[in-house]
Please model this.
Amino acid sequence: MELFKFTKATGIPQAVQMAAMSKTAQQGADVRFIAGGTTLLDLMKLNVEVPTQLVDINGLALDKVERLPDGRLRIGALVRNSDLAHSAEVQKDYAVLSQALLSGASAQLRNMATTGGNLLQRTRCMYFRNDALPCNKREPGTGCPAIEGDNRTLAIFGTSSDCIATNPSDMNIALVALEATVQVQGPKGEREVPIGEFHLLPGKTPHRENVLEPGDLVTSVTLPAAKAGAKQTYLKLRDRASYEFALASTAIVVELHGGKISYVRVALGGVGTKPWRSHEAEHALMGKAADAKNFRAAAEAALHGAKPQSENGFKVELAKRCIVHALTVATQQA
Amino acid sequence: MSTFSTTALPLNTPPKTMGKLPRVDGPLKVTGAAMYSSDYNLPGMLYAVPVCATVPSGKITALDASVAEKMPGVKAVYSHGNIGNLYRAAPPSGFIGILDEQRPPLEDEVVRYYGQYVAVVVAQTFEQATAAADKVKVTYSKTDHNVSDKLKTDEKPKVDFHRGDPDAAFASAAVKIDETYATPTETHNPIELHASVASWDGQGFTVYETTQAVMNHRNVMSQMLGVPEENIRVISRFLGSGFGGKLWPWPHTFLAASASRNLGRPVKLVVARSTMFESVGHRPRTQQRFRLGANADGKLVALIHDSLNHTSILDDYSEGCSEATPYSYSTPNLRATSAIVRRNVGTPTSMRGPGAVPGLFAMESAMDELAIRLKMDPIKLRLMNEPEKDEGLNLPFSSRHFVECLNTGAEKFGWAKRTPGVGSMKKDGLTIGWGVAGCSWIAERTEAQAAVDLMQTGMVRVSTATQDIGTGTYTALSQMASTKLGIPHDRIEVVLGDTRLPAGPISGGSWATASLVPAVMEAIEKAKGTLFAVAGSAKGTQFDGAKPDALAFTDGRVHLKDKSPDTGVPFEEILNKANIRVASGQGSSKGTFGDPNKKFSTHSFGAQFAEVTWQPETARLRVSRVVTVIDGGHIINPKPAQNQIEGAVVMGVGMAIFEETHYDPKFGLPLNNNLADYMVTTNADSPAIDVTFLDYPDKVLNELGARGVGEIGLAGIAAAITNAVYHATGVRVRELPVRIEDLLGPKMDVA
Ligand SMILES: Cc1cc2nc3c(=O)[nH]c(=O)nc-3n(C[C@H](O)[C@H](O)[C@H](O)COP(=O)(O)OP(=O)(O)OC[C@H]3O[C@@H](n4cnc5c(N)ncnc54)[C@H](O)[C@@H]3O)c2cc1C
Ligand code: SF4
Model:
């Protein structure tokens, strides 16, 4: 851990201004916002993050879940994961999000973790988290030892020859299935980014994980108005029953009309370098009957382009079962 | 209620434990008042943080501490050459003088495992020492390393046990099993980190240490630091468990002590969780070829068990996988061999049930495979091969009720309802699997001494330099004295974990309780003798002039043997009248361990029954239910005993389906060196556990017939689970842990 300055932000403009001094908002940032700290402090202790300035945003008024006049739901960036999961609005209209949040981490961590922090949590790749080892994401150009090493928990979608790390968040998978948007306040003003465009593929620049630039503060995440009658579910498969990241997970939002699937969103966790939306599965399901054969076909289509590594080939079959079972559970709901 | 102060205890006042059941130390622990080693803060104390090697094999070519030395608060940086004299310990005698990593830290500039200490920074605060340790620049010339988990050796294995002609018998056996089973490197991971708080006073040391053996620790420190034993005091009041990892000293203790001596100030060194995967021992990887030959009716004719385990480059640690092999089942022809294979890893050590636990995974898996091959119920196969005596030692068992363990367990578990077909049993929409395995563990006594003081205050003090590692030793001793003297627990004070007390046993091998019984009983008798002598010469009492052997002690009262207790007086009254503060007695137990003239084979036995649930649609495997029946001698206090077995079962679930320390082949480090990546059982993974003790006193061991139950609960459980996994899924996992990928098998058919 290195010495750092700690400043409590008094307002959004000041927070943005301080962070704008950073040379990057990605790996290597010298100014970091701190929210719950459950990702950031760990990484600082491991010397993976070495900011010289922390800007504590916990005092900012970004901790509300609000219904907007048009029916959308705006979630402040500082809403704690546990509060969000238990919010009545979310439980009623966005069950997939509540389930995803509650399947993650532990009660203590969820009480600290925030919406913004969860959106931006870093990979659990063990090479990334050990500063004695090479890693392109942590130190660009040093190589990716995971490709020939321990990649059991890493990605099968969106990988590159430079990085195969998984985005580990459960919440993000639900946000993808719900087609959320992210509101960002930056030095040049406010902007809105669809969740699908928020995270980046590693490509040649795995140290760049999202679209944020110096000074950018995530202020909220907004969910579209609830679809009446949509069925939702989140299924997470993992080694142990709690306190464990997904090996494969699936978030489903689905509507049926006359026994046929009229709307469906399928997002996959634990398998992608970014929260993974499976357009292939959705395409295979649209207009089809909700039955096991079609679910399996959708799962096959979803995993068609998977690129397994030396240790994680099992994820292909596991993700298929996850999709089939999640679809089964979702469509059988009353 | 216990009368503990919540502040740091002054050095010379050992904490008191008032006997109050259940678990006399419970209130202290739940209120946070119990002082663990790293809780001690001494005046002027400094903090030491080690620098660990970042190569698994090589030589230090340069070590630059110039930046670190100038950092705020830094008092010293020690590396090879300036730490001061550290010697090697001579070979041990009995349970004194033992350590697994023989090389003193910083002895040379050669690195033999990743994480080996190459320097230590001492500073005013922990943060300063940590920051400076990061800035010590070490350059290495790397040499080839090997951390491979594929174990092979060209060396001739050691023959541990041999009888009959196993090769010929196996060759001609009607039914054969010949499989190799493997258990991974496991890291103990007690919640309490290893720690040393060492204070040099110019002549010797006082050390608060996370140790399961204060007497051994003092001896090894004396040898390695070159200070007479009487000048060293080692204290271990409470231990946040050890599981064997804290039995013998590890290098950090010598760094802390040396730094304290060099600087003339107390030094605290707390070993980081990640470092606990490197330099405080681990259960080594084992690979075991197990051959069973049987008649067509299931009678064993041959058993051959060849095991390998990895060890470090410098130390010869043998896991001893064949511990339970020679005596578990009856067979005329048997051989067990073992060999070690060197790897660039830290030195392994005992972990809960060393040897027997991995060994029984192999044996009880092989027995299950044999039963399936024979189309026989696995319990029946075991009953058929029940020995009449220990065929390895050719001695009768002191007390063996393995058959009853199996039968009682079967009854409790509902085994009769089991259908043998793979995947044939369902419950609540899930496939269930049922498995059984036997277990056993060594029951022995080690040498031990204890003192009992009958005090003028009416209190009784029991003291011995053993430790309570969370197993309930405070409670068991309180109970022994209470029962024997007829004095309530709240008048009994137990003092442990201090080398100034009479030499007590190691907290290892599950032997502490059994070892202490004779010592405490003798000490009680002697203390009573002292009291009777006082009574007989105490002027003005009704016993004035009475011969000691005319007196008796009942429920805290002294009376004439031929009169009833209520005619007597409380013992404290006699001491008060005589103005004598304490009537003391010392007692000792002889060890049985390694006794060449044994007349009995002494072991504990048990049966483990496990149920797993399996949901193929989601590849979800859970251990849902465990029934354990233990033949562990007389159980002094069923509460902590049950707690030991339940804890062991939870650990066994970890062994079966979660735990593995993974060394990265390229970089040579244990990669998953933290509690997020090294999976242990969580509450949500813990099954319903039903524990039964048969409670047959083993009077060969001591007058109470008590053995010890710290380890046996972990034996057999992994095999019971993998046997259940086979029953549910048809997949035989011979290499632990069972992983989701082992079970995905052929593609799911959903059409
Ligand atoms: C042991 C463990 C197990 C876990 N298991 C799971 C799991 O199973 N599933 C799961 O999904 N997650 C899991 N997590 C991760 C957890 O969900 C995240 O750590 C948490 O959500 C991060 O939120 P935070 O508020 O604490 O973030 P912080 O640590 O405060 O911040 C994380 C990052 O986001 C940035 N940041 C925070 N807020 C903003 C903002 N408003 N605008 C711009 N940047 C911001 C920070 O600068 C930092 O870089 C686990 C974590 C741990 C430690
Ligand atoms: S997968 Fe990505 S994070 Fe992991 S080692 Fe490779 S580059 Fe680093």
